[in-house]
Amino acid sequence: MEVNLEKGKGKKFPYNNRQLSWMDFNIRVMEEAFEKENPIMERVNFLAITASNLDEFMMVRVAGVIDQVEHGVKASDLSGLTPKQLYSRLSDKIHEFSEKQYNCLNRSILPVLRKHNIYLKKISDLNDTQKKFIDKYFDKVIFPVLTPLAVDTSRPFPLLLNKSLNIAIRLNNDDKENIFAVMQVPSVLPRFIELPGNKGERDFVLLENIIMSRLDELFELFKIKSCCPFRITRDSDLDIDEDTDDLMTEIEKSIKQRRRGKPIRLEIYDKCDKRLREFLIDMLDVDESEVYECHGPLDLTFLSKFAKISGSEKLSFKPIKPVNPPPDFFGYDDIFEAIREKDRFVHHPYDSFDCVVKFVHDAARDDRVLAIKQTLYRVSGNSPIVAALIKAAENGKQVTVLVELKARFDEENNIQWARKLEKAGCHVIYGLSGLKTHCKICLVVRNEDDGIRRYVHMGTGNYNDSTARFYTDMGIFTCKEEYGEDASSLFNVLTGYSLPPEYNRFIVAPHGMRKFFENKILQEIENAKNGLPAGITVKINSLVDPAIIQLLYAASKAGIKVRLIVRGICCLIPGLEGISENITVHSIVGQLLEHSRMFCFENGGQPQMYLGSADWMPRNLDRRVELVFPVEDEDIHKRCMDIMELMWEDNINTRVQLANTKYVMIDKRGKKHLNCQTEFAQLTKKALKQKTEQDTVSV
After folding, report:
1. CA–CA separation, 374 vs 463, rounded Å?
2. Which of 16, 51, 344, 609 is found 20 to 30 A from 580 (Cα to Cα)?
């Protein structure tokens, strides 16, 4: 069977638009904010996540659609929508979503916070003690950093930072009506301030409300007619010339341009004065469809910090604490000895990420280690991995690091780390022209008594100790020679001019991964036709690729059960008679962010399991360096199969996609409630306890 996308106008095959599908994902996140069974501070945090998600979506995806409309693109996409039609549907969906966010805040979250004696107060509701407190706070802390900016013929409307919170002010005096000014709410100050409260209460007030209550002191020559908070979101998709001689300088230049991108969203308070509203629309040159009226505080991302106020721990989920050491490394001080004995598997955050840090840390200090090679896509602001690589270079090791400078919204952080690594003596590579390097791999070359041995860590997630606490990811450590050879070959491709080799075990994009996955699905179809066991179970973050989707439809038509766990975007439409009735799509949204990628093929009764960094999107298969690898160790293979089955049985965090593309919760009536994330945490603790007890008995 060949992959052959149908040509012609209109809808070519069942395909849900990726941008609309992403909005459905963010709706699933917001449902968690409405969920009464979730602790209230977790609901607050979920609402903050929806706001942060939407910001990035607007800056990149919606901005891209607007750009297509403005350039007159008329062609329809695979879902049958032209850019103009898509923007209209997106605009309606985002406006409706924004309204639901504030309904959630005002009708669902704030009343519950009040039941717990936590109040977000208006200035007019404060008692005398609290008013004196904010007066002093304004005079001592806020006033010195405020900068009122008049807007008139000699002072043009200022260039406002992307996503900054501002206040628009309309003033007049005896000589002139409708004078306007703008003032940024200082981002260097806390967005919310706790006040001295009544006994048993915790009272908070927002920074912008304090400022607006004292505006008359900033404009003493004028009368304040009205004021309104507003916030703009700019087109922030970087346009990078990768043919430049200096990629780092080019990216730094593009980051500066991001700050001046065209405004594509204006958020204002819904009670904004009409003249102020008109003034902002005119000055920012936005369309009416780009205006979002908010019934509550702008920029709900501040709620992520509010959800973590001290003393509110009992109003949050019981934290899932990583087990350290992971059961696979229990009893081993020498991490290399553990890996020599057998392949080791870790499942984060249930297994502590510290073992990955230790792998690099110990290599940096081991006299026998000759070289370390590693890819870095997103790392934390104070990365122990980078610190270990710097130490390794200082200790005379050959250290090669591929730092992906084009990791969206992490560009500045990665540039800083790249410079520090270079300064320490590391060989720093910025990736291949035209391709993002998204694979997760670390190679340690060690001189041992029996010769050179290569130790390899391969993972599904970033080398980021911060996100590893709440992203679910997997990794395998091995020193099998086939994997070491493949790792060396991959780094030679990344750092030099080597042609992509025939790998022993690795499946690497963009040169072989698409064909690999297409052939695996075709083989399942062939097995089904021959009466052999056939089945496909996959866990990914996004499913967008048209060719893969068509092959999955073909597998369904062949009677193969296809089970997909897709956290976010899913352009495949399941449950369509004669097309996809054998395909089921689950989405898991819970306490942790599902990030691992797993691929299981029944293979005629001998199931094969693969892990890796790639989703099923054109960018992953065709425009990125990605790594997928087989799980060959019998013990680890069984564990991965068990993990997949447990996730499939989850009925607490899981929603099922219907044939109309809507998602619904699993009906739990008569079923044992199963939260796969808390279950994995318990199983990992149990495994470590068993290892501890066995060790005690053996002693």
Report:
1. 9
2. 609
Any catalytic annotation for residue 438? yes
Question: From residue 499, how far is each of 403, 496, 510 by CA, in Å?
Answer: 21, 9, 12
Report the C-alpha gap between 546 and 514 in whole angstroms. Answer: 12
Q: How crowded is residue 498: how many other Cβ atoms within 10 Å of its Cβ?
A: 12
Q: Are strands 291-294 and 263-269 parallel, antiparallel or unpaired?
A: parallel
Between helix 40-57 and helix 83-103 the angle, nearest 10°, is 160
Range list of H helices, 138-273: 207-213, 247-258
Q: Which residues pair with 610 in a beta bridge?
A: 599, 630
Q: What is the pLDDT of residue 328?
A: 96
Instruction: Compute the distance between CA of residue 434 and CA of residue 463 in angstroms, rounded to an integer.
Output: 23
In angstroms, rounded to a whole number, what is the distance separating the alpha carbons of residues 540 and 306? 31
Question: Rounded CA gap, 682 and 520, in Å?
Answer: 34
Strands (DSSP E) found in 519-601 = 535-540, 561-566, 583-588, 593-594, 597-601
Residues contacting residue 135 through CB under 8 Å, at least 6 positions apart:
none
CB atoms within 10 A of CB 349: 24
Q: What pLDDT shows up at residue 697?
A: 65
Contact 495, 454 (CB under 8 A): no
How far apart CA 309 and CA 301 sit, in angstroms, is 14
Give residues with Cβ within 8 angstroms of 642, minimum separation 6: none
Is the distance from CB of 489 to CB of 426 less than 8 angstroms? no
Q: What is the DSSP string of 321-351?
A: PPBSS-GGGTT-S-HHHHHHHS-EEEEETTB
CA distance 517 to 153: 62
Nearest to 372 by CA among 384, 383, 361: 361
Q: What is the C-alpha separation between 3 and 548, in angstroms, rounded?
A: 8
State the maximum Cα–Cα separation within the chain, in Å, rounded to a whole number.
92
Question: How distant, in Å, are the alpha carbons of 75, 165, 212, 417 from that of 301?
Answer: 36, 11, 21, 26
Residue 350 CB partners (closer than 8 Å, separation 6+): 320, 322, 323, 680, 681, 683, 684
Neighbour-count burial of 217, counting CB atoms closer than 10 A to its CB (0-12 exposed, 13-18 middle, 19+ buried): exposed
CA distance 664 to 100: 18
Catalytic residue among 361, 438, 457, 595, which?
438
Between CA 251 and CA 407 the distance in angstroms is 11
Number of CB atoms found within 10 A of residue 124's CB: 8
pLDDT along the chain (699 residues), means of 10: 40 88 97 96 98 95 93 93 96 97 97 96 93 95 92 82 94 79 95 89 96 90 91 79 53 59 93 92 93 96 96 94 96 96 98 97 97 92 92 95 74 79 89 86 96 97 95 98 96 84 94 96 98 98 97 98 98 97 98 97 98 97 96 98 98 96 91 95 95 74
- How many angstroms separate the first and last alpha carbons of the chain? 60
